[in-house]
Amino acid sequence: MKISRLRVRRDFLFVAQGRKAVRSSLVVQAREGHCPADEIRAGFTATRKIGNAVARNRAKRRLKEAARLLLPLHGQAGTDYVFIARVTTGATAWTRLLDDMQSALQTLARPATGDTDD
């Protein structure tokens, strides 16, 4: 399974309209549709609320490495993911960041449930 990067703003905006999972150290957005069926695409972002350029880059580097480890295991083929850093991303313990990302990816892998009564 190939993993590539999202780099165009239009793709980030497309994924923002999909599902999301919020955790204490990151936010993960996911959406199917634009990605080839045998590929996973990932994008990373950090707003100025995170801090200066050094803090934002550190947070994004941590997200990239965690995604490199976890997307092949828990990501769904044919899906675009956007990983958004939070203020705590840079200072969170590495194992906690991995746990949060894994939990978010597993939540997004489940089919969306509707409010239907059986």
Walkthrough of the structure:
With 118 residues, the chain is α/β, with parallel strands linked by helices. It contains three helices and five strands. The chain has helices at 9-16, 53-74, 94-109, and strands at 2-5, 19-22, 26-32, 39-45, 79-85. The chain has a five-stranded mixed beta sheet, sandwiched between helices. Strand 2 (19-22) and strand 3 (26-32) form a beta hairpin. Helix 2 (53-74) packs across helix 3. It is globular.
Structure at a glance:
The chain is built from 3 helices and 5 strands, in the order βαβββαβα. The protein is of the alpha/beta class. The mean pLDDT is 91.
Short descriptors:
globular, alpha/beta, 118 residues, five-stranded mixed β-sheet, 5 strands
* Shape descriptor: globular
Instruction: Report mean pLDDT, rounded to a whole number.
Output: 91
What sequence of helices (H) and strands (E) makes up the elements?
EHEEEHEH
The low-confidence parts are none
Question: What portion of residues is helical?
Answer: 25-40%
Class by SSE composition? alpha/beta
Lateral strand order in the biggest sheet = 1-4-5-3-2
Any idea what the radius of gyration is? 14 Å
The total count of helices amounts to: 3
Number of strands: 5
Main sheet summary = 5 strands, mixed
Describe the SSE topology.
Layout: E1 2-5, H1 9-16, E2 19-22, E3 26-32, E4 39-45, H2 53-74, E5 79-85, H3 94-109
Parallel strand pairs: 1-4, 4-5
Antiparallel strand pairs: 2-3, 3-5
Helix pairs in contact: 2-3
